[in-house]
Specification:
Helix 4 packs parallel to helix 13 and helix 7 crosses helix 8. The chain is mostly helical. A 3-stranded parallel β-sheet has the order 1-2-3. Strands 4-5 form a two-stranded parallel ribbon. It is built from 13 helices and 5 strands. Strand 4, helix 8 and strand 5 form a beta-alpha-beta unit. It binds adenosine-5'-triphosphate (ATP) and L-tryptophanamide. The site of adenosine-5'-triphosphate has 22 residues, from helix 1.
């Protein structure tokens, strides 16, 4: 019997993976690989809440799987799978829609941010599907960046509501948010989150970018409006750009903010930005090279997602059967 606690998380294949997703989420998934029974999903059904080009969605799903593995997620240690391959997600998603309140969904900031155009029902009810993703696996922790905290809180509320009516059906999960790197900001606008759908390509670093591109972006990263000080010091309120670069450097090297301040004492922003760029290049280099190698072997990737879907479905179907029984659905 596996005594380890369970983890679940997912990322949408809605764009190329970014340094933000790596530092806020994937890095933790990898660090905890031996200590938890973990499920990591590519949530393609969530991605279609925003219009996608089918060929791009297919390509990015495969690339994302290759990147998961290249980052260090050994498919024999954790379950890697594609959401649409496990129908229980859609099935429990519907059920939980009926236990999630209109008012709760209206308060979700991600919905408000993304609802400028194409405000479809899926975009609105997305957190109910996310709750289903999570609750199917009865996980203890959900390792995500801080932007997902609100969705995990809603998942906890829905699970508690369901348990209060039907008894102990769901484990109540907790968000697992890193101390450093929980919210990496755009390199060109340190007041907004680094995101794969950012319109400014210079604000965002992708895991598969070349060293030259990465260095160029870090060299032109915004530091602080008062460049006369030119001093590397952690002050998120006054110097958000510098604080963001310090977060990134700390994630890449393991150094504390104190150590970083000492290392760059009297050396100015130019030297610091170059050092951050170089540290990120070195962190991403093996991931990029390994991704390329894995992507060339389509049969291997197919075997990984098939094995993952089978393992995930075994757990998910058990929870779904329990839920259907509690609801009063007649067994098939
Ligand atoms: P989109 O632009 O499509 O909303 P995104 O770039 O914000 O996407 P997601 O796919 O939504 O990224 O996020 C994947 C995971 O990475 C989530 O756990 C999320 O919290 C985390 N994450 C995303 N961006 C960042 C960031 N800038 N800093 C830290 N964590 C992040
Ligand atoms: N909402 C998340 C993606 C996501 C997710 C999940 C994360 C969908 N289902 C389950 C953790 C657990 C996002 O937009 N990043």
């Amino acid at each position: 019997m596996d005594e380890r606690k369970t983890m679940f998380s997912g990322i949408q294949p809605s764009g190329d993976l970014t340094l933000g997703s790596y530092m806020g989420a994937i890095r933790n998934w990898v660090d905890m690989i031996d200590d938890y029974n973990a499920y990591y999903c590519i949530v393609d059904m969530h991605a279609i809440t925003v219009r996608q080009v089918p060929a791009d969605l297919r390509r990015r799903t495969m690339e994302q799987l290759a990147q998961y593995i290249a980052c260090g997620l050994d498919p024999h240690k954790v379950t890697l799978f594609v959401q649409s391959h496990v129908p229980a997600h859609a099935e429990l998603g519907w059920v939980l829609n009926c236990y999630t309140m209109f008012g709760e969904l209206s308060r979700m900031t991600q919905f408000k941010d993304k609802s400028a155009e194409n405000i479809n029902g899926g975009l609105f009810t997305y957190p109910a599907l996310m709750a289903a993703d999570i609750l199917l696996y009865q996980p203890d922790y959900i390792p995500v960046g801080s932007d997902q905290k609100q969705h995990v809180e809603l998942c906890r509320d829905v699970a508690t509501r369901f348990n209060n009516i039907y008894g102990d059906v769901f484990t109540i999960p907790q968000a697992y948010i890193p101390r450093v790197g929980a919210r990496i900001m755009s390199l060109t606008d340190p007041t907004s989150k680094m995101s794969k759908s950012d319109k400014d390509p210079n604000g965002c670093v992708h895991l598969l970018e070349t060293p030259e591109e990465i260095m160029r972006k870090f060299k032109r990263a915004v530091t602080d409006s008062d460049t006369s000080e030119n001093c590397v010091r952690y002050d998120p309120a006054e110097k958000p750009g510098v604080a963001n670069l310090m977060q990134i450097y700390s994630c890449a090297t393991g150094e504390s903010f104190d150590e970083i301040e000492k290392e760059f004492l009297g050396r100015g922003y130019g030297a610091f930005k170059t050092a951050v760029g170089e540290a990120v290049v070195e962190q991403l280099r093996p991931i990029r090279e390994e991704t390329k190698r894995i992507l060339a072997d389509k049969a291997y990737l197919e075997s990984v997602y098939r094995m993952g879907a089978e393992k995930a479905a075994a757990t998910a179907n058990k929870t779904l059967r329990k839920v259907y029984k509690k609801l009063g659905f007649v067994a098939r």
